[in-house]
């Protein structure tokens, strides 16, 4: 009896599990250093994970024959959904947001599963286009953002100009938490404004970094012997300007997305990362951030179990050929074998196959808590946006669907591979990156696919070959815009309208240009159009 009691006492409560979790995503323009930062963060999470990460990175660089290699060639990161690691007393869930030039819905939906975003900027390039787009999604979803300015060891923009750029381009107040001592070849370290400590950056021959050590205050005479006078004088001038002129940090303003705390460092040299991570744990909120349709926040502890599917991936492992649905736990405790309600199917499902992934490796997950990401084997049961829950259905906001801007028909000349062709198209479009349509009039009966960028078609075609062994032809169609038609108005469409049906059998109209679409809207006011299917 005594034993049972003592075990119960030491088991962390649901509240404790929630309090120690941080679920976040890194947003960056390609090449800013997202992968390098991820690896360095994992380093603090333990050697086993690091080995895995390095392996995954190496595989990516050396792989030549699959679609992932193609992703790398084009500067896209591999999708592994989420990595969980422990640091200090915390459990961190890092969501993988593939960042590439083309707009991808996948990335945007992943952000919706995060409670905080870390925005990585290249100190020489500032705010780049992809960062701007991703930032916009975070802002729309109310996700607070912490900025890490990377590559401080290389020539950079002027630091004040960089902060101004963040403020002007992104319309968010930048509040430096640390301030750099010099930049580029003169980069000597960072000053931690919170603790008035200096962390020195010293490159030694052979590229090995000594552990950063601390001195107290910017006027500590120890600095004079370590740092060139001109760099130190400039730094002391700058820090005075910062202390005098910078907006004071306020946690509520940060959570509301009005201000972003800014850190400086070098991911490649593992400099400034530990300081960033330690501050991140205090700044980033624990899971609470699921906003319901009525604008209120979901209480992850008080509410019964709920999660939503934010990502579906086919052929995660070429050996298993299985499809995985990734869910983010919003509230309550997950236990393997749990019976839950499935909102779309309107029936009960037993969650018996639940996994965590690390590259190609997978481990069974027996328990999970709000903020955690679990992969469920998906024999076609789950679609993006599905909600699984105990008790009353939570009123989660629907996931956004973006109207594609490019359309094509897809066909295969090889009649012996028709089965694989159909299966491949069906399964890969479930991932929600390309959308599948059909039409009686357009494309002479071939399936129609729509996407936001040309790259998506190339990856799709390559995956059909690699994963389903099907050669395909893609013929681009001359349309650049589409709109869903309000169901009651579909019968009013003129016969000249370029009608197609989505996979839920909803009517969509294609337009050759934005101008054509606006012309149609002006001339057919009785037909209501929507830029999303809901
Ligand atoms: P991404 O995931 O955002 O696309 O960027 P990634 O981490 O792959 O980094 C892009 C390039 O920038 C890499 O060089 C990486 O080594 C380099 N890099 C990242 N952080 C820093 C930094 O703090 N300082 C400097 N000087 N370079 C940095 P690469 O040559 O493309 O690849 P690799 O061969 O070095 O891996």
Structure description:
With 534 residues, the chain is of the alpha+beta class. The protein folds into 3 domains: 1-20 and 286-400, Rossmann fold (3-Layer(aba) Sandwich); 28-74 and 117-283, P-loop containing nucleotide triphosphate hydrolases (Rossmann fold, 3-Layer(aba) Sandwich); 406-530, Alpha-Beta Plaits (2-Layer Sandwich), CATH 3.30.70. 30% of the residues lie in helices and 26% in strands. An 8-stranded antiparallel β-sheet has the order 16-15-21-12-13-20-17-18. The chain starts with a helix and ends with a strand. The chain binds guanosine-5',3'-tetraphosphate. Residues 28, 30-36, 77, 150-151, 153-154, 266-269 line the site of guanosine-5',3'-tetraphosphate.
Ordered list of secondary-structure elements with their pairings:
Layout: H1 2-10, H2 14-19, E1 21-28, H3 34-45, H4 47-62, H5 67-73, E2 82-87, E3 90-95, H6 105-112, E4 116-122, H7 129-141, E5 145-150, H8 159-170, E6 173-176, E7 178-181, E8 189-192, E9 197-200, E10 214-216, H9 221-226, H10 229-245, H11 251-255, E11 259-264, H12 273-283, E12 306-313, E13 324-331, E14 334-335, E15 338-342, E16 347-351, E17 354-358, E18 361-364, E19 367-368, E20 373-377, E21 387-389, E22 406-411, H13 418-429, E23 435-438, E24 448-451, H14 454-468, E25 473-476, E26 481-485, E27 498-502, E28 507-511, H15 514-523, E29 529-530
Parallel strand pairs: 1-3, 1-4, 4-5, 5-11, 6-11
Antiparallel strand pairs: 2-3, 7-8, 8-9, 9-10, 12-13, 12-21, 13-20, 14-19, 15-16, 15-21, 17-18, 17-20, 22-24, 22-25, 23-24, 23-27, 26-28, 26-29, 27-28
Helix pairs in contact: 3-4, 6-7, 13-14
Bound molecules: guanosine-5',3'-tetraphosphate.
Guanosine-5',3'-tetraphosphate binds next to α3.
